[in-house]
Write a structure and sequence with these properties.
single chain; about 210 residues; alpha/beta; eight-stranded mixed beta sheet
Length: about 210
């Protein structure tokens, strides 16, 4: 995972703590669209939320602006120490954990576990890793899990690519939505696939 940490540390150094590009988003608009889709997984008021791959806390900022902050029970976790350091500076009232979710042993479950953009950086044996992560996210949740991925149906046009301006597509994993859906159905019968908001992206909801 050192390559992941190095990659995002360099982006943070390049763009600073308040720029959407520090976690490799291609535009603020696309980042917000994904946040909106994830937020529709269920009523998040008074739910405990774990943000897996939280970066500098952009998803929390979105929730804070769209949900009564007194009704937000939010925790963020990320593998990159410098991202967590910046998240703690920006939102000192919330819990941010530096850990690799793969090995992390939570001491409790969360009502909803979310991951936005944190499953796209291509790793060795990525498909096996991804399945293990999805299963662990579900095991860590009480109510629901939501995550987004790049789609294998990406038309490949520059205008539609979702990530950084560098456009090194070899860095990113594009998943077949139907295969991820089928795998999630082995975990729970209650699965929703959304591929209706961006051409290159899809979101999965899993429910208990």
């Amino acid at each position: 995972m050192n390559n992941v940490i190095n990659f995002y540390t360099k982006l943070l150094e390049q763009y600073g703590p308040d720029d959407y590009r520090n976690v490799d988003w291609g535009s603020k608009e696309w980042q917000m669209i994904r946040f909106i889709v994830l937020s529709r997984i269920t009523d998040l008021k008074n739910k405990s939320i774990l943000d897996m791959g939280c970066g500098t806390g952009d998803l929390y900022k979105f929730f804070k602006e769209n949900i009564d902050k007194d009704q937000l029970n939010y925790t963020g976790i990320d593998i990159t120490p410098n991202l967590i350091k910046e998240a703690r500076k920006k939102y000192p009232d919330k819990e941010f954990i530096t850990a690799d979710f793969t090995d992390w042993q939570p001491n409790k479950k969360y009502d909803v576990v979310l991951a936005s953009g944190s499953l796209t950086y291509k790793l060795e044996n990525h498909e096996e890793w991804l399945k293990n992560i999805i299963k662990k996210m579900f095991d860590t949740s009480n109510i629901a899990v939501g995550f987004n991925l790049l789609s294998s149906y990406d038309p490949g046009e520059e205008n539609h690519h979702c990530l950084s301006s560098e456009k090194d597509t070899s860095l990113y994993y594009h998943a077949r939505p139907e295969e991820i859906f089928s795998f999630c159905k082995t975990i729970t019968p209650y699965v929703t696939l959304r591929h209706d908001y961006l051409l290159h992206d899809f979101t999965i909801y899993l429910y208990h």
